[in-house]
Design brief:
Radius of gyration: 22 Å
Largest sheet: 2 strands, antiparallel
Shape: globular
Strand content: under 5%
Number of domains: 1
Helix content: over 70%
Strand order of the largest sheet: 1-2
CATH class: Mainly Alpha
CATH topology: Amino acid/polyamine transporter I
Number of strands: 2
CATH architecture: Up-down Bundle
Length: 506
């Protein structure tokens, strides 16, 4: 338990210090925000700080900070340290600067930010990449909450051939369509406080339950290289229970890069950049940015820590087989064991809320991004509905494939996880160039350090993965290092040229 507590101290203590530093580097002021200068009653709408913060939290927190840590904790208690450190210097910094740059540039979408701080080629690649990712997010965040609701709440079988499964999917679809088409304060701004209350009950309830129940959590200095308590795996052939060792899993499954692909949203998520831009259009003041962007990502890190601890507890008590493919079922075990049948059901609803409240804004961001890129008028409901219909048709195709294909969802999830982290590289590039052009070049190490790390992680992973190039690990690591060095060098060279050209024109 001590390592878990130390991790929380690192998370909140480090966030207080580094978050303030990020704010100082950016330099928010009292200039008029786009919520007022471009107010349109649809997307540019002034809203209170607490509401913006809550909406942003629900936008960014999908299944990632739950299912990711549940799988990531299989690597052992080191997850309790890597999650908070990565969150502070990577994810929260990423979210803050993405949101603030978009805010200062007039409430632009991330695509416009990339277009402004890169070149035509990178912008084109980014646009294609982000559209595909948001489509994947939309499909994943219908599939996951739909199946959890079907099996965990209504006790259906969740099968592809069951009418009940598609009825639940259809309800989520309708909500997404409404949230995508109507003004942000008409739907999202009104319903999210309710969702937020359920979310906080879920996270805080599980957190308190960890201590009340006295869940056995391993420390870094414990012997987690040998089988612990009742943790076990099941042999697929014989059905026999085999003792589980976190250390064996750590050694055999390449902690680097697999852990940092698996535990996405609790540490870093490129998807967040598409969401923070939405909130940049509803903020009353730049000074609200630290709480709205940085601190909400820190809260997501807290959620990730809580679910990682809950998973380790049920594994160590033998309440659930240690198997990454059973992560969805582990959610229900944690909820019911810690909070009872009623409280567990409410907490489970909170888990369902997370992906739903990310999926709706993902599709909203996709609509806004396409509209901005092609200069499409979105002032009327009919025009927003027309564009949304095309988007939803594509999502439906992906969803049907994932549900009816035996390996469909696994393929979908792997590409989603990898592309989610890869997208962050574009954001770190944009932040770096913004710093070069705005007299903050001495701070460019802030985006370059996590950017270099994730260039290494994503390239190494896709080089080795079966969904990628299937290159042996020893070669994949070399390729990853080369990619990271090239990424940093290219940004520094390009950033200095951009800064020199800008200063020469003044």
């Amino acid at each position: 338990m001590a390592t878990f507590v130390i991790g929380l101290v690192i998370l909140f203590g480090g966030a207080a210090l580094y978050g303030k530093f990020c704010e100082k580097v950016f330099g928010p002021d009292d200039r008029e925000t786009p919520a007022y200068s471009k107010q349109d009653g649809v997307d540019y709408v002034p809203m209170r700080c607490w509401k913006n913060s809550l909406i942003n939290l629900l936008n960014i927190a999908g299944t990632g900070p739950i299912l990711g840590p549940i799988q990531g904790i299989l690597f052992g208690p080191i997850a309790f340290i890597t999650i908070p450190i990565g969150n502070i210097i990577g994810g929260a910094m990423h979210d803050y600067f993405c949101g603030m740059i978009c805010l200062r540039d007039g409430g632009t979408q991330m695509s416009a930010m990339i277009r402004k701080y890169s070149n035509k080629g990178i912008f084109t690649i980014y646009n294609i990449f982000v559209c595909l990712l948001l489509l994947l997010v939309g499909a994943v965040f219908i599939y996951t909450p739909g199946d959890i609701a079907a099996t965990g709440i209504f006790n259906f079988d969740g099968a592809a051939t069951s009418v009940s499964t598609w009825v639940i999917y259809g309800v989520i679809f309708v909500y997404y369509l409404i949230a995508t088409v109507f003004p942000i304060d008409a739907i999202i701004g009104r319903i999210y406080p309710i969702f937020g209350a359920i979310l906080m009950f879920s996270a805080i309830g599980v957190f308190i339950g960890l201590f009340v129940k006295g869940y056995p959590l391993l420390n870094l200095w414990d012997d987690w290289q040998t089988p612990f308590m009742n943790a076990f795996t099941v042999d697929a052939a014989s059905g026999a229970q085999n003792a589980f060792s976190y250390g064996d899993y750590f050694d055999a499954n390449h902690f680097i890069p697999i852990f940092f692909i698996t535990v996405a949203c609790g540490i870093l998520s490129g998807f967040h950049s598409t969401q923070t831009a939405i909130i940049s259009r509803t903020m009353k003041s730049e000074r609200q940015g630290r709480n709205t962007f940085y601190n909400m990502m820190v809260l997501e890190g807290f959620i990730a820590m809580v679910w990682a601890a809950g998973a380790m507890g049920v594994y160590n008590l033998g309440l659930q087989e240690v198997n990454a493919s059973l992560a969805t079922g582990t959610v229900g075990v944690i909820c019911k064991n810690l909070l009872g049948s009623v409280g567990g059901t409410i907490a489970l609803i909170g888990v369902i809320v997370l992906p739903i409240t990310s999926g709706d804004t993902a599709l909203r961001a996709l609509r806004l991004g396409i509209a901005d890129a092609f200069h499409l008028d979105q002032s009327s409901k009919s025009k927003r509905l027309g564009l949304s219909a095309i988007i939803f048709a594509l999502v439906a195709v992906i969803l049907v494939f994932a549900k009816f294909n035996a390996e469909g969802f696994n393929i979908l999830w792997r590409y989603f996880a990898w592309s989610n982290q890869t997208l962050s590289l574009f954001a770190f590039l944009g932040i770096s160039i913004w710093m070069f052009e705005n007299g903050k070049a001495k701070f460019v190490w802030m985006p370059l350090i996590p950017g270099a790390w994730y260039a290494f992680v994503t390239v190494t992973y896709i080089a080795n993965a079966q969904i990628g190039f299937h290159i042996p690990w020893n070669i994949a690591y070399v390729v990853g290092v080369v990619a990271a060095v090239a990424y940093v060098a290219a940004i520094i060279i390009y950033g200095k040229k951009r800064a020199a050209k800008l200063h020469a024109s003044l």
